[in-house]
Sequence to fold (126 residues):
Amino acid sequence: MFNTIHHVAIIASDYNVSRHFYSELLEFPIINEAYREERHSYKCDLKAGESQIELFSFPNPPKRPNAPEAAGLRHLCFGVKDIHKTVSKLDKKEIKCEQIRIDPYTGKKFTFFKDPDGLPLEIYEE
Fold:
């Protein structure tokens, strides 16, 4: 029935900070960006492999519950070829990752870091 995940939508508390984080630091290319006057909101589409990240701004969005086990989207995960190279590259950009762990079910390496709003992001070695 479903073939892929087309996109994931993120609402940023500070659009410019998050736009810089995702497009410049994480290096997701911008596909399209628009200001939607009627909503007082920016929308930026970023290419993430075969999927997209939609980055939004809205006036005064409510804060995200911070508990990692809260109901709703738990985290967003990006697949990488070499987790150690990726962590090193993020570290050079002053993006701190947790310690690399091993998934006990798959034997694959993974770790987490956070975006400017504290959204948990995972990298998983494919």
The domain at 1-61 is CATH 3.10.180.10 (2,3-Dihydroxybiphenyl 1,2-Dioxygenase; domain 1). DSSP finds two helices and eight strands in the chain. The longest strand covers residues 41-48. The mean pLDDT is 92.
